[in-house]
């Protein structure tokens, strides 16, 4: 995968928990053995032995969190302003790869709003990454972007699919 291409998705609450647990690492490596990856990271078929995870660190340097570590904070996630970060921490890294959703949905930047809305509803999504033809991230769509009022003002002029303002699927 090229630099700047969509690789996966990680939620803000997961990042906050990683920072709270001080999952910092000092140096970067290009490859890590798949058996050293966190137990809830999916490994693509055919890459069972090694997975390319850029900027990954020595697994012995930082603690690896399990699902139980994340569940401990549910539903109260630590606030960013309450997490202590020291000046020395600013030179360290946090490897997000073991915690990313590598199978996150994405849509092409020209995808019609009605199709996006159907995908959100059918899959129960919270976020949807928008990519261009080179799989570079163009933006992010959230549930808030798809509220009926926003859809009425933004997409009512579109003629490629049925008028979404009067479409029964919106109710």
TrEMBL record:
Keywords: CBS domain, Chloride, Ion transport, Repeat, Transport
Pfam families on file: CBS (PF00571)
Domain CBS, residue spans: 100-146
GO cellular component, one term: lysosomal membrane
Molecular function terms, GO-annotated: chloride transmembrane transporter activity
Superkingdom of the source species: Eukaryota
Protein name per Swiss-Prot or TrEMBL: CBS domain-containing protein
Organism: Paramoeba aestuarina
Lineage: Eukaryota, Amoebozoa, Discosea, Flabellinia, Dactylopodida
